[in-house]
Design a protein that fits this description.
homodimer; 2 domains; Aspartate Aminotransferase, domain 1; 12 helices; Aspartate Aminotransferase, domain 2; four-stranded mixed sheet; alpha/beta; 41% helix
């Protein structure tokens, strides 16, 4: 049996061999000049994806959810009014975290399999004539439904409103175009999706307006207190022991991304997104996302005649290809094909062929 | 120049070659049976160190400080009265986190370089005749001062008091004897010290009494909400994407620890602790810890005639041996030699020789 799975899930994604090898570098002192140099190199790599926006980028030891919580704990105080634009599980996650921290949460939920309408956001913003919203939270790419939200259009609705705009780009950062200059104050990401690294690092970028809110927020926080992460970052350190090995990995992965060219990486994901959707449709399957279909994860309706567990089981056990099922309400109704990060055309050819064969073994006919 | 530093700091510690190699295994799906098997194997390894105590062990993606915060956020509600037995920076860290979460904190601080007196703890506990203390927090091994606290004696003072006893064993777990049966309700650790792994995983073990407190606590928490970690652990998963590669590492490191035998590992640390203290004294240096000197980190007074930065700089730049300076108030006054985890007699011979040579280059004479 071949070692390693074909990870056609939205994350963690396949880690390139040179990135895996980078992790076998010996451990280093995290308070010495060597770590400061590593940290500076990682930061430069992340900035090359983020673009020229003036933001501080911090790399925390946690998953993507951890940096979502860091954003909430540092920007929102109990009783603050906020708006969440939710198109699935990860939008709901913002709602849950915000409620845990005592925020008063307004939610715009999209129809299942659709992005949130920027017009709906605009309506809420216009109705907030007392300017009560402290922050608006949105998911760039909602992996639970395979939908990409138009965060550029959402940001535009906030042009005359002081609310901060916080974007969860956990799966999209480094795969889909995202420009803070659109009007985004906080960008959140993680190591294990487009950045082709093992999970374990959460990334958060904040501009000056966001920092003002951080200084004023009253929620309890220590591990996720971004003020101490910023203070230590100034000397090339972290307030707590960082996940050094994953920093080695991230440094190498960012080198690969810059070698290919950030724009080329975006173009590759776009091309592969089209390829997956065409392939899925040509197999006689129906896309779940009717609008805003994501270029990095494709959601597919489970055909009536098929038991999805059987289908994904065949792909996994016989061919070592791992597709993802649906989450929560969508369990049994959709399955998902991840195509983010270290993925080439040949990976998609294999995935589609395995999907066709597995469907046929389940008795599916077009 | 040799690749890799001789890490004579209290952490992150040297990672054995087979543990480094384990991290180059391909990424896997964190929601599949393979991860559940890995997780079960890691848990069994951790239990072999923890002993027969009936505790749930959870492995979180964060540093040791993260699990310290998890303990606070899950056990303490705003306004709760707690006691911290502090002998240095990491005892103070509990105080800071507890205050951030709104606890009313009583502190017993030891004299610098000494352990906390269990008699002082007993006095505080006896004086608390209203049984107000919800929890008592202590540091097993205080790496900032090189002191080991007698948590067994502290636990005994709580025999007739309902307060939970929470022990930070971040540096000691897997190196120094620690038995929850002494009366410890919560044990906290991390991957990057005695467990010989890269940083990135925090470990927390809780007994039944601790879980009752978790269910009742009112502090905001999401990422560190141990209820969801426990729920997912039941199916061999984690609520957020786990640091899979460091789990590979931890599994291999635990295999090495069990191959050597947990008791033998404890005995090796004890022997090496003695060896370091004898060696340091024979060089004409003075130990900082007058009582309770730790077997895993040795603190040394900086001789009057020596500039410690110069001393540590020579060891680092010329010999690639990294000693640690003093933290906070102790900066410039002590330096520290770490000897925890993947360390053998030959590493100590080298460290002492380099120390002798570097001292001599600084002009130090006995």
């Amino acid at each position: 049996m071949r070692e390693g799975q074909h990870l056609r899930i939205p994350g963690p994604t396949d880690v390139p061999p040179s990135v895996l090898r980078a992790m076998s570098r010996p451990m280093m002192n995290h308070r010495g000049p060597e770590f400061a140099a590593l940290s500076a190199s990682v930061n430069a790599g992340l900035k090359s994806i983020l673009g020229p926006a003036e933001m501080d980028i911090l790399t925390l030891t946690c998953s993507g959810t951890g940096v979502m919580e860091a954003a909430v704990a540092n920007l929102v105080s109990p009783g603050d009014k906020v708006l969440v634009a939710s198109s699935g599980v990860f939008g709901e996650r913002f709602v849950e975290i915000l409620k845990a921290y005592g925020a008063v949460v307004d939610v715009i939920s999209s129809a299942p399999g659709e992005p949130v309408s920027p017009k709906e956001v605009a309506k809420k913003i216009e109705a907030d004539n007392k300017l009560d919203y402290k922050a608006v939270f949105a998911t760039h790419n909602e992996t639970s439904t395979g939908v990409t939200n138009d965060v550029k259009a959402m940001a535009a609705t906030l042009e005359d409103h002081p609310a901060l705009f916080v974007v969860d780009a956990v799966s999209s950062f480094g795969a889909l175009e995202l420009d803070p200059a659109w009007g985004i104050d906080v960008v959140i990401s993680g190591s294990q999706k487009a950045l082709m690294c093992p999970p374990g690092l959460g990334i958060i970028a904040l501009n000056k307006d966001a920092w003002s809110a951080v200084d004023a927020a009253k929620s309890p926080r220590f591990y996720f207190d971004l003020r101490s992460w910023r203070k230590y970052a100034e000397k090339g350190q972290t307030p707590v022991t960082p996940a050094v090995s994953i920093m080695y990995a991230l440094d190498e992965a960012l080198r690969l991304i810059n070698e290919e060219g950030v724009k080329n990486v975006f173009a590759r994901h776009k091309r592969i997104g089209n390829m997956v959707r065409s392939g899925v449709k040509s197999l006689g399957l129906e896309l779940f996302a009717k609008k805003g279909a994501s270029d990095i994860v494709t959601s597919v309706n489970v055909p009536y005649s098929i038991d999805v567990k059987t289908l994904l089981g065949i792909a996994r056990e016989r061919y070592n290809v791992i597709f993802a099922g649906g989450q929560k309400d969508l369990a049994g109704k959709i399955f998902r094909i991840g195509h983010v990060g270290h993925v080439g055309d040949e990976d998609i050819l294999l995935a589609l062929t395995v999907l066709e064969t597995s469907l046929s073994e389940c008795g599916f006919t077009k």
